[in-house]
Structure formats: structure tokens, C-alpha cells
Write a structure and sequence with these properties.
The complex is a heterodimer of chains A (333) and B (590).
Chain A: E1 8-21, E2 24-37, E3 41-45, H1 52-59, E4 68-77, E5 80-81, H2 87-93, E6 98-101, H3 115-127, H4 131-144, H5 150-153, H6 163-175, E7 181-185, H7 193-210, E8 213-218, H8 221-227, E9 230-235, E10 238-244, H9 245-250, H10 255-262, H11 302-306, E11 312-313, E12 321-322, H12 327-331
Parallel strand pairs in A: 3-8, 3-9, 6-7, 7-8
Antiparallel strand pairs in A: 1-2, 1-4, 4-5, 9-10, 10-12, 11-12
Helix pairs in contact in A: 3-4, 3-6, 4-6, 6-7
Chain B: H1 2-11, H2 22-31, H3 34-51, H4 53-56, E1 63-68, H5 69-91, H6 94-100, H7 109-130, H8 137-156, H9 160-180, E2 199-201, H10 203-206, H11 210-223, H12 225-236, H13 241-269, H14 281-287, E3 290-296, H15 378-414, H16 416-430, H17 434-444, H18 452-463, H19 466-480, H20 483-490, H21 495-532, H22 543-547, H23 556-583
Helix pairs in contact in B: 2-23, 3-11, 3-15, 3-23, 5-7, 5-9, 7-8, 8-9, 11-13, 15-16, 15-18, 15-19, 15-21, 17-18, 19-21, 20-21, 21-23
The chains are: A alpha/beta (333), B mainly alpha (590).
């Protein structure tokens, strides 16, 4: 399948998810738009608290209400608006069409059940298999995610498995109903570096095999470079830059993206201090006026405070979009 | 089946031979706690003593092979008057009968005939059962019955003449029976009398109901579980872990099924029912009204309602204060009669009566726990009293656990206004003083409509669930945010499934502990109410009611023994609760 005729599987359009806390409103996600194409991986990067995870929970409609709610926007999955779906309809979609794996494999598995029974439950819920068939499916899934001796592991408890094994189990659980979209929310953050690569390879391999799309949320640029096809860079509840992965790494245009790349350690210059982005992420209760990055931006001017820059295409085919008033100055950074 | 087993063992090689599942781990953890095992053993014994109380302490014999001279004598004595009644009835025409019958009676002539026939044949059958096979009297009785039946048949056919004639003959036969089949005179041992044979009966079993059989069989199977479970696993399943795991539910079903089957069989055949009244057997055996060739009594031969006139407030007989001299006077202790302060007259003590099967008057083990104000044996009443106290605890805790868990789960899981409303309702309920509410309900509802003991159970269950609900709510609020709950929602599971299958088992630890405490609290509440006299109806004992028997410090055994039983039970429940809390939480394992 060529780039051009790939269809959009999921389109997030102007999503706003707010939380109320002690009378004030936190705009955790404030107008996020991105598209995930079929069979491809979208990497979402950004600092802690920029709204990456809230966006993915909004897609699953798992925002705890109260205190949170989806204020505006559309989430179109195969053209169907998930924001307007009933809880009943969402339950059919969750697990079956969109599955999710979590950051903490230590706590994302129910400690009182065997890993097998947790996979079996998901399979029986969505595919209506009988207990024996569901168990066979669970063993098959464990084997698929590379767990040795799955016939024995299926009867073990989460606490008997290592972190990497648990993440594999989570993936097996998520994959057990053949979802079209897998949301991986920082799937490797809690794991050892060696295991991280294995898990990411596993996800890539499963994607190859099943043709599913992946929404890969991370704050690790290296992970994105290796695994994603497109990248969305998020800052303070907004997407500031969206581009194919090669394009972004070759020509980052937003000052924030450039700052992120600068803060990566350079193996060619050992012993040098790492560059940092000065300042802190603004609070979701009170974002600065205009461009939200201007308080930390090295090239900010008065006009940045006046108006919020729209996410605009750089060129004709619109594959690379950036939200910045000062693109020319940024190019010189 | 053999293939996965091989890998199974290979996989868990260093972890103890096989991959343990949840219940394997829970039992392993519990097995490590000595205090828990001791507490559980004590509770098992207490429950066993309560469940098997009718078989341990009873004034009815298991088996009685005896001649009941009194019963025989009564049948013999009343047969002639019955015959006279038959005679006068047979002479009448139906119209005359209707004219003469008692005002307000609706009995027809035929019904009256049937009733008279039943009265006569019942007496004849009873007498026949005591007569030996070769006795001449049997022929006379048979002749009597044939003629009675013929006479009644004639009367039914409205043939008054034949009926009158037949009845006249019947009367003559009845006279012969009166003379020839008289029982021997009990007061005159020298007198030669009619020779009778013994009757076999099972008075104790007839006082055992199907419910009691259910619990007796159930408890026997539960107590013997380690034995038959091991045999089952070794012989039938040959130690195959996977199959043992799958057979777990089957075993429980089998235990329950067998108990139900036994109870059903009992209902269909014997169908006994608990009889509160003291049984006549012991006194009759002592006086000679019943002469037994075989009488098998339970280990303790006192009934829980059996009084003893000479033994009011007798101290435990192993203490030297309980000694009685030959005339029935207490030699030492609180029961020694003192002369009246004004008149100086020494009250005449009733001598202690020792009935059939009882230990001697001064035997050390006659009254191990003493007696109460009516001379009822305290050991027996403590055994039977456990039935009320222990079941009140279990039942009220079961009700409040179910209500509390469900309400707490809903409040904690859904949060928001649901939580707000339920929490306010819980706070409202907390304002009710349970004790006084029970007093109010018990005094308003008539005791013959609902027994007060059921009211106590229901009121405790309906009011006291707030503590469990608050605990469950707290656990749910905490677990609701945990990733595995979000993960289960992300798998598309329904709220009910998430609540009951994913969160509840994780929240059960504190709830179980509070459940164990609730059993203890229920027992204490019942004791308190019974102590005030609002619990069980006399003569049914309960531990609290036993404490209430006397408030005189001289009667120390009245307060000490039931109080000790309550204390031990409550402590054991608390120990079991704590051990359970630790064991059901798989995260605490290595």
C-alpha cells in the first residue's frame, strides 16, 4: 500500500477535554487535531502534563466524569463520531476495535486473577467463545507475544511475572480481539532499556502481521524515530507540529521541537552539558495568551502574545504542519 | 493431558513443583499461621457442639427397648369406656344421633362412627404391640376388632338392629379384655401379672428435624474434609493439579448435595421436630412405669428444659460447695438452707432427685457447670445456647455484609451524586442507636407473629451494614483509579463486571475482616438483648440469656461460663478475620 491511498482510521478534530478542580477549569486538552492512517503508527511526543494521555483516554471515552468531560471536538473512528456514541456502543468498541496498553504493567493487571483468566475474559466478552476455546486463544496469544511455556504461564498471577513479561501479557490481552487501533500509552517507560526494545519490536511485528494502526504515546524521541510513521508534537494541550517522521527529524520547524532535539545527548560531544529548555510547562488552569510556548521561546516577540498561531501547512501537499508565527526566525535556530 | 503437565512441572520447578493458583496460595498462607489454626479449631469445635447438641445432651434416649406399663395400662383402662361409646352410638339411628349430638357440632353420623372406630383400633393395636406372639390375649383382641368392624359396618348400612346386637357381643368381649389383659400392679411387686414384651422406639431421633440433619451431615463432611479430600486427590485424581483445581467446585457441590439429600431423606421418613417439653422417659424409667430392657442415652442425660426441684442454683459439682448429704441437704456453699430470721424455722429442702441414667447425687461430673434457678443443667444449656448465639452472629453478619458491600461498591464506583446520596443515607443510619431500635421493634411486633430472635437478626443486618459499606466505598474509591480497573474498562467490560469481578476481590480484604468483627458484634448484641430479657423465648437458651439467670455474685458459675464462651468465640472470630485479611491479598506474597 502506498502512502497516498492510505485511508484515515482515526481523526481527532479540535478535541477539548477539560477538568474541573476546586471551582477552576483545567484545559488539559485544548483543541487537539491529528489523524492516524490505516496500518500506520502515529507517535505523540511531549512533556509530562501536555495532554498526551488525556487525548488517548478521550478517544476511549474513559475520562472520569466527574471531574472531567469532553467539551468540544470530534473523534471520528472509521467516520463514526465516538464523542456522540452511547456508553453501550463504546463498550462494543473498547477492546474489540480500539485496545489500549498502559504505562505501568505492574498495576495494569488485576492482581487477584491469573493472567490467563484476564485474557479469557476479554475474548469471551467480545467474541463469545466457549471457555475451552477462549483458553486456547489465551495460550495462543501468550505464545504470539513471545512468552515461553504459555501453557504454564496462563495459570500464573501477575506478581509471578517480571515487568517485561507483564507488558507482554498486557499486549496479548489488548491484541486478543484483533483491534484495528492499538493505543500504547508510554508502553516502555517502566521497563529496562533492553526490554524496551523487545516490546517495541513486538508491537511493530504485530502491526506488520495484522495491519492495525498504533497510537504510540511517549516522551522519548528515539522511540518515535524508530517506530512511528507520523509524529505529533504536543505542548500545553495543543499539537504544535505534525509531520512524517523523516521530515520532522530532518527539518524540525517549531521552536519547541527544535528545543526538544537540542536537549538530546550528543554522542559525538562527550562531557558537554545537555541543553535544556528554560522555564516550566504553563499550568493548564492559566495558559499564557497567544502562543503558549512564548514564555519559554528564545525568539518570542510581542506579536506572539497577541494571537494564537494556527496549525498551518508549510507546503502545498500539507504533510508538514506547524503552529508558529515566526517560522523564518525559527528556521535559523 | 500428560503433555502440559510435564511442561507445567518444568516451568514451576523452583517455585515448589507446580504453578499455584489463588486458592492454593491463600491456603498456604493460612497454614503458616498457628494462631489462626487454633482459633479455627476452637470455632469448629464450638459449632460442632452447637450443631450436635441434641446428640450430646438430651433427656431422650437414642434407642429405647421397653415396656411402657403406663401406656399399656392407659390403653387397657380406656378400652371399655370407648366400647360403651360405640355401643350407644350403634343403637341410634342417624336421625337420633343428629338430634342428640353436642350443640354446634358438625360431625355427621358416619364421621362419628369412624372416630369411634379409630379410638378403639388404636388402643387395640397398642395393646397388641406389647403382647407376646403366643399370648392368648391376642385372639381375644382379634375377636374384639372383628366384631367392632362388623357392628360399625352394620351401623353404616343403617341396619340398627344388627348393629345393636353385634355391639352387645362386643361389650362382652371388652369385659373379658378388661379382666384378662390387665397389666401387673406396679405398686405391688409381688403380684403376678400379665407377661408383656418390650417395644423398640427412637425418641431422640424423633425430636431431630430435617434442618438439623442437614447441618449435622454438612458439618461432618466439612470437619472430615482434610481426610476425604486427600483420599480423593490421591486416588481419583492421582495428584494432577489441573484436575484438582477443576474438581474444587464439584467437591463443594457434593458436600452441599449430600447434606440436602440426607435432609430430604429425613423429611420423607422420620421428619422429627424439636420438642421443647422435658421428656417423660427418665422419670418413668425411674418410677418403673417404663421397664426397659435397653435404653441408650446420649453422653449427657439432661435435657435443656429439664428442671430438677432439689438442685436450684447448684454450684458445679467438682467444687466442694456442691456436696449434699443423704437427706438431701447441702453440706456447704450457697445452697445450705438458713433458718428464717424471725421464726427460726429451717426450711425443708427438697431432696435431690436422681433419675434414670444420671450420675450419682454427689458425683463430680453430675453438674460440671452447675445449674440455674430452675435446676436446669448449665452445661446442657450452654451447649444448646450456642445454637442461637452462633447462628445469630453468622446470619446477621451475612445480611449486613451483602447489603454493605453492594451499597459501598455502588457509592465508591460511580462516585458523584450517587456517592453523595448514599453517603448521606449511611450517615443518617449511623444516627440510629441499634440497641434501642431493636428493643423498640421487638416490643412492637408480637412474638407469636415473628419470633424476637429473627427480628434481632434482621434489624442488626439491616442497620449495621454501614461500617462495611464505608469500608467497601473507601476501597472502591481507591481501586477505581487504579490502572487495572481502567484497563478492564478499556477492554469494554460492563460496569457490573468491573465492579464485581475486578474491584470486589481486591476490596474483599478489609470487608472480610469487618465481616468477622460483625459476627462477633452480632453475638454480643444478641447476648446483651437476651441479658435484658428481649431475646429468646423460655425455655430456649442462648449464651446471653444464660448470663441473665442470676446477678448474685455467689452464683459465679452463671456469669463465668457463658461469659467465657462469648469471649472465646468473639476473640476467635477476630483472629480468623485478621488472618483472612492477610491471606486473601495476593500482593502480600513473596
Amino acid at each position: 500500500m502506498s502512502e497516498a491511498n492510505r485511508k484515515a482510521l482515526l481523526e481527532v478534530d479540535g478535541l477539548r477535554t477539560y477538568f474541573r478542580s476546586e471551582g477552576e477549569i483545567a484545559r488539559a486538552v485544548d483543541g487537539v487535531s491529528y489523524t492516524i492512517l490505516e496500518g500506520e503508527t502515529l507517535g505523540v511526543v511531549g512533556e509530562s502534563g501536555c495532554g498526551k494521555s488525556v487525548t488517548s483516554l478521550s478517544i476511549m471515552r474513559l475520562i472520569p466524569d466527574p471531574p472531567g468531560w469532553i467539551e468540544a471536538g470530534e473523534i471520528r473512528f472509521r467516520g463514526r463520531n465516538l464523542v456522540a456514541c452511547s456508553e453501550q456502543e463504546m463498550r462494543q468498541i473498547r477492546g474489540n476495535e480500539i485496545a489500549m496498553i498502559f504505562q505501568e504493567p505492574m498495576t495494569a493487571l488485576n492482581p487477584v486473577f491469573t493472567v490467563g483468566s484476564q485474557i479469557i475474559e476479554a475474548v469471551r466478552e467480545h467474541q463469545g467463545l466457549d471457555p475451552d476455546a477462549a483458553r486456547a486463544r489465551a495460550i495462543e496469544m501468550l505464545e504470539l507475544v513471545g512468552i515461553p511455556i504459555p501453557e504454564a504461564r496462563v495459570d500464573e498471577y501477575p506478581h509471578q511475572l517480571s515487568g517485561g513479561m507483564r507488558q507482554r501479557v498486557m499486549i496479548a490481552m489488548a491484541m486478543s480481539c484483533d483491534p484495528d487501533l492499538l493505543i500504547a500509552d508510554e508502553p516502555t517507560t517502566a521497563l529496562d532499556v533492553t526490554v524496551q526494545a523487545q516490546i517495541l519490536d513486538l508491537i511493530a511485528e504485530l502491526q506488520e502481521r495484522t495491519g492495525m494502526s498504533v497510537l504510540l504515546i511517549t516522551h522519548d524521541l528515539a522511540v518515535v524515530a524508530e517506530n512511528a510513521h507520523h509524529v505529533a508534537v504536543m505542548y500545553a494541550g495543543k499539537v504544535v507540529e505534525y509531520a512524517p517522521v523523516e521530515e520532522l527529524f530532518a527539518r524540525p520547524r517549531h521552536p519547541y521541537t527544535i528545543g526538544l532535539f537540542r536537549s538530546l545527548p550528543d554522542l559525538a560531544k562527550p562531557g558537554e552539558r545537555l541543553a535544556t529548555i528554560p522555564g516550566i510547562v504553563p499550568s493548564a488552569f492559566a495558559f499564557p495568551s497567544g502562543c503558549r510556548y512564548r514564555t519559554r521561546c528564545p525568539i518570542a516577540r510581542d506579536e506572539c502574545a497577541a494571537a494564537e498561531p494556527p496549525l498551518a501547512a508549510l507546503d502545498q501537499d500539507g504533510v508538514h504542519t506547524v503552529a508558529c508565527h515566526l517560522l523564518e526566525e525559527a528556521a535559523k535556530l | 493431558m500428560t503433555e502440559p503437565r510435564a511442561t507445567d512441572q518444568a516451568a514451576g520447578g523452583d517455585a515448589g513443583g507446580y504453578s499455584k493458583d489463588y486458592w492454593d496460595q491463600v491456603f498456604e498462607q493460612l497454614g503458616k499461621r498457628t494462631l489462626f489454626k487454633v482459633a479455627l479449631a476452637i470455632l469448629a469445635v464450638l459449632y460442632a457442639s452447637a450443631i450436635y447438641a441434641p446428640l450430646i445432651a438430651n433427656d431422650r434416649p437414642f434407642v429405647l427397648e421397653a415396656i411402657n406399663y403406663k401406656e399399656y395400662g392407659q390403653a387397657h383402662r380406656t378400652l371399655y369406656p370407648v366400647t360403651l361409646g360405640l355401643n350407644s352410638l350403634a343403637k341410634k339411628s342417624p336421625e337420633e344421633y343428629l338430634e342428640d349430638r353436642t350443640e354446634g357440632s358438625t360431625q355427621t353420623f358416619d364421621e362419628a362412627l369412624s372416630a369411634e372406630l379409630a379410638a378403639a383400633s388404636g388402643r387395640v393395636e397398642l395393646m397388641l404391640s406389647y403382647l407376646p406372639e403366643e399370648a392368648e390375649g391376642r385372639a381375644v383382641l382379634a375377636e374384639y376388632m372383628t366384631k367392632v368392624e362388623a357392628g360399625i359396618a352394620a351401623a353404616r348400612a343403617r341396619d340398627t338392629e344388627t348393629a345393636t346386637a353385634t355391639m352387645k357381643e362386643v361389650k362382652d368381649v371388652a369385659k373379658r379384655i378388661r379382666a384378662e389383659l390387665a397389666p401387673p400392679d406396679l405398686d405391688d411387686p409381688e403380684a403376678e401379672g400379665l407377661e408383656l414384651i418390650g417395644q423398640k422406639s427412637y425418641p431422640l431421633w424423633e425430636s431431630v428435624s430435617a434442618w438439623e440433619i442437614f447441618f449435622m451431615v454438612l458439618w461432618a463432611l466439612v470437619l472430615l474434609w482434610p481426610l476425604w479430600n486427600r483420599a480423593w486427590n490421591a486416588l481419583l485424581l492421582r495428584g494432577d493439579r489441573a484436575r484438582i483445581r477443576r474438581h474444587r467446585r464439584l467437591k463443594w457441590a457434593l458436600v452441599l448435595g449430600l447434606s440436602l439429600l440426607a435432609a430430604g431423606g429425613w423429611k420423607a421418613t422420620i421428619d422429627g421436630s424439636l420438642n421443647f417439653a422435658a421428656a417423660p422417659y427418665k422419670a418413668a424409667l425411674t418410677s418403673g412405669e417404663i421397664v426397659a430392657t435397653r435404653a441408650v442415652f446420649p453422653p449427657v442425660t439432661f435435657g435443656f428444659a429439664e428442671t430438677s426441684s432439689g438442685e436450684f442454683f447448684r454450684p458445679p459439682t467438682w467444687s466442694d460447695k456442691a456436696e449434699i448429704d443423704d437427706e438431701g441437704y447441702y453440706v456447704r456453699g450457697p445452697r445450705v438452707p438458713e433458718p428464717d430470721v424471725i421464726t427460726g424455722i429451717l426450711p425443708d429442702p427438697a431432696p435431690v432427685e436422681v433419675r434414670h441414667g444420671e450420675p450419682d447425687r454427689n458425683a463430680k461430673w453430675r453438674r460440671p457447670l452447675g445449674t440455674d434457678s430452675l435446676g436446669r443443667d448449665f452445661l446442657v444449656r450452654a451447649l444448646w445456647g450456642g445454637r442461637i448465639s452462633l447462628s445469630v452472629g453468622i446470619l446477621s453478619a451475612a445480611i449486613l455484609l451483602v447489603i454493605g458491600t453492594v451499597v459501598g461498591a455502588i457509592a465508591g464506583y460511580f462516585g458523584g451524586w450517587v456517592d453523595f446520596l448514599l453517603s448521606r443515607f449511611i450517615e443518617l443510619l449511623l444516627c440510629f442507636p441499634v440497641f434501642f431500635l431493636i428493643l423498640l421493634v421487638v416490643s412492637v411486633v408480637p412474638p407469636d407473629f415473628v419470633p424476637p430472635i429473627f427480628l434481632i437478626v434482621v434489624v442488626i443486618g439491616l442497620i449495621r451494614w454501614t461500617g462495611v459499606a464505608r469500608l467497601a466505598r473507601g476501597e472502591f474509591l481507591k481501586l477505581r483509579e487504579s490502572e487495572f480497573v481502567i484497563a478492564s474498562e478499556a477492554l469494554g467490560l460492563s460496569p457490573a463486571r468491573t465492579i464485581f469481578r475486578h474491584i470486589l476481590p481486591n476490596a474483599m480484604g478489609p470487608v472480610l475482616v469487618s465481616g468477622a468483627f460483625s459476627v462477633a458484634a452480632g453475638i454480643l448484641t444478641e447476648s446483651g438483648l437476651s441479658f435484658l430479657g428481649f431475646g429468646v423465648n423460655e425455655p430456649i437458651p442462648s449464651w446471653g440469656a444464660l448470663v441473665n439467670e442470676s446477678r448474685n455474685p455467689e452464683h459465679w458459675w452463671v456469669i463465668l461460663f457463658p461469659g467465657l464462651l462469648i469471649f472465646v468465640t468473639v476473640s476467635c472470630y477476630n483472629l480468623v478475620g485478621e488472618a483472612l485479611r492477610d491471606a486473601v491479598d495476593p500482593r502480600l506474597k513473596d
